[in-house]
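[#protein-structures] MJ: dropping Lipoprotein here for a structure pass
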Amino acid sequence: MRGQHPARAAAAAVAAFLFLGGCGPLARTAAEPSPEAAAGRAGRAAPLAPAREPSAAETRLLERAEQILISRCMDGRGFPYAVTEAPEAARSFPYGVDDVEWARAHGYGGRDERAAARAREADPNQRYFRGLSASGRAAARTALMGSAPVGLSATAPTGMTITASPEGCIADAERTLYGDLATWFRVKVVTMNLRPVRETRVHEDRQYAQAVGEWAACMRAAGRPYASPDASRQAAAHFGESMPPAEADAAEAELAVIEATCASGTALARVSKALDHTYGERLRAQHQEEIALRWRLQDGALPMARQVCEEHGSEEHGKTPNPRTSGGSHA
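AK: finished. structure tokens for Lipoprotein:
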């Protein structure tokens, strides 16, 4: 997957190769038309299922099923692929840390990030990928992602055009689950990129700038003269360059607690939450069709996801435990 900007394109390609999620229904093959397409050819409008956001458990089911389908596909192409669980998303504070207790325990999340990096390093798919020759890695990448990121294209709310291949095991798994791969790719690109647009709009809002000014005054009074939460976070990131890890973590936590105290003690936390909600609602209204369609596709994929996962569980039952089936990302 890539975008028009070269650096972002490279990052997107790496991310696509390192992380897989999603899983869906087995009842429809790639050759079978979706109900929407069949209804369209019949000259009538397809009935739309109610749009219902999948629960967290259903999302995990879809993600695991997609992993299983990718594993089957890669195995059929001669490449072992471990079914792993995606790690839980780290808590983020895009407008500044505002939870004092969290800051006291995690700082800015540096220790958590190091643990996540170790988990990625130990991931069985990554270990396998690193052990291949250059030609082997290229062949594995092609099997997983297709030969080139062309064939699927969608414009994200950020304005970036994202492309991907309709070939490869990722595409095969998503096509199996969601039927219309082009539609699924489009709604996924749109809905997954609403957050950066929302956060950018908050940062550019005059009310946020005014609240940051109040926060900065509080930080100066506490002996930490940083102009913005980004500046304090960047300062904390450099602690590890001159301190042992334990000392760097303690210094990071101390600064994060001061930041959170100032955020909650001034208008920053309140204004950030209010603006985030306002811009989020506007974006959801603007892209409600894509959001609803994604939910309907996910809901329709659940029966197959359950079948895929149940079949995989039956296949795994009685096997000798494989240490490769734990991790959090794919090769």
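MJ: nice. The chain has a mean pLDDT of 85.
AK: one more thing. Residues 6-33+55-316 form one domain.
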